[in-house]
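Hi, here's the filled form for the chain we discussed.

Project: internal
Contact: R.S.
Residues: 270
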Amino acid sequence: MKLKQLLLLVFSSLLFQTISFAQDKAADSAKQRKKEMMDILYTKPKAPVKTIGIYLYNGYQTIDAMGPYEVLSQLMGVKVFFIAKEKGFIRNQSGLKVQVDTTIDKVKRLDMLLIPGGAAETFMQTQDQTVLNWIRSIDSTTIYTASVCTGAWILGATGLLNGKNATTNWYRADEMMTRYGAHFKQERWVRDGKYWTSAGVTAGLDMSLAIIHELMGDKYTQGVMLNLEYDPAPPITGGSVIKTPAIVIDLMREMYDIGLKPLITKYGKK
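And the returned structure, exactly as it came back:
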């Protein structure tokens, strides 16, 4: 065999081995990448949360309930559902009807309970002993108990936030949390032990993502955020008492006072 032919044969053999090695390496890399994806998708939660109940009542604020419902429904293998005092259509603040088939007398245990807020109707829930007793009973076995916005008023009225750090809607926030023995924190969301509370309305989305992050870690949460394309970009600065001009805060407080201050004054602290 001529030297040229021998060199060509050796070169061909080395090239074949190199290509085979590269293909094997690429296959191993793809396999490893697939495994990493599955590991993210099937992340084992830090706590065995399987049932999440969201308590609805006439006059609840839509996003307070529906925002967390959408976010928490991204947890694989978890049942998220609505509960009401009575079966039937429950109306939000604007009259939108949602049919609720599960009632508080049928629910004896939950891994997580979430209570949305509202306005005057929310305050009246703080006076409903049947509801408050049910929340106390459910809380005795929950892994997490949470509220959104003025839902913290209802949770506070049970006595469960006494001595706890908590947040709520900006309106009379310190006053209302003090009423229930809680320590108000000007935060988007606050966790104190098993209790999670969030500020007004959209803050419930952040809190729900924080709960998922606590359970599932970074990458799973980032997957949820991308699925929801959650990347807020408001057109102007605002949205909290820290970022809003004083005149706007005063305007909104006076508007809230019209419907809520008479009730707060009337019922006082029990």
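Let me know if anything looks off before we file it.
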